[in-house]
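Researcher: Here's the sequence for the chain we discussed earlier.
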Amino acid sequence: MTRPASITDDLLRRLVSRVPSTSGGTWKLTEVYTGEVLIELPQSTPADVEAASAAAREAQKAWAATPLKERLAVFARAHELIIANQHTIADLIQAESGKARRMAFEEACDPVMVMSHYLKRAPKVLARKRHAGPVPVLSHSSEVHIPRGVVGIIAPWNFPFATGLSDAVPALMAGNAVLLKPDNKTALSPLYGISLLEQAGLPEGLFQVVCGEGPEVGPTLIDNVDYVMFTGSTGTGRFIGERAGANLIDCCLELGGKNPMIVLDDLDDAALDDLMPSMLFAVFANTGQVCMHIERIYVPEGMYPTFRDRFVAAASALRLGAAYDFGPEIGGLISPDHLARVQSHVEDAVARGAQVLCGGRARPDLGPTFFEPTVLEGVTKEMLHGTVETFGPVVALHSYRTLDEAVALANDTDYGLNASVWGTDIKRALAVADRIESGNVNINDGLATAYASKGTPSGGLKTSGVGARHGDQGLLKYTDVKNIAVLKKQVMGPTAKQTYDDYAKQMQMSLRWMRKLRLR
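Model: Thanks. This is the structure I predict for it:
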């Protein structure tokens, strides 16, 4: 397979040239479809991380002093630059991750959507806000949001461009510098995105990038920033949370999921026809390598045979392929190692009594990381796929007798990132959604509607994370708040002629009046 013409050796050299590496060590970054080495990616040392953080901190001083209107103008220009270069971005995402072009192109939309939202919302959210003080008329206080300083972002390999840029955009808008550590396997697309931001006017030095294995550079990054944004596994998230806590800095962690789908009994054949493409996307988008994708489906007992047969037929018809065009619906997994993990979950389930209804095989004829869309039946909690996040194109079908049972099964997990409910009675579906223990719940969609709703915070419950991205919270988390209070007259205590007894009575009366005034 020939790589796209946009991915030239010169472009690759320019992209990785900004990664500091005093050791001279490199990592072979490969094209997933073929295994060909694209570029030797420089590997940063802990000393490189410290130097990058110091440079970012120095650049941040001038950026924080830049008026918000001027900061936002950079992202208005970047918005158009990303759209204009979206096919090159998709080429890079595909080359480094192996995902289908449809998914790569959609990923390139995410930072643009984030920019669009915060370009409108940031002036109001970050504006100084005046509040009443404890003494009416004679006092007031102001809420002032100031940047934290240097924000560390540790981005995953499954959506490298989206998480590398989309999480950085609100941090930069708020006046921070950013220190990004992408995954070694997928560093090219975020590096290209940063070059577009700088082309749009982002000051050089403000957005630093370091590369290396997590255990080698991650701790030093956490020790040299003022806030951490992490997307990845729950195990790594626990370590980052502990390290951030020891440094008395805050963090946001979007972690794993074992996400359920509940199908309600009011779906007829026509409704299933209409919803089936979205159901398939909920499970197999990005070859199942989505934190929010569905791994468990619960179907009413009476409609289970019909649903199973139609879902399996639709999954079997999905088109797999390695191509830099929009033909294939399903791409490859990120690496041969990850394929082996996914395959081990399927083999474990079969060995313990589960049945493979379709798929279940690697496809080396298509490329080194291809695995068929797989539907399992008879999965139990004793199996790896029953409780552990598989993170691949594998889903288990289950039947249920009552809605209470379905909700209990959906909630029977340590995770709580995403869930979905499917039915024609939206009011009823919403009532079910209210009972599901999850940070995101989609009605008649798997994941995209919740994640694309940039005005609403998106995060996880239970072991699926801490904090949220998107919404006002997704911008304010990158700020510290300063309370500036003003007292115009010295009335916060007894007068010279007043005993403290009288002052206490006056205070009690004032407290009652303050409550009545605020109720009005």
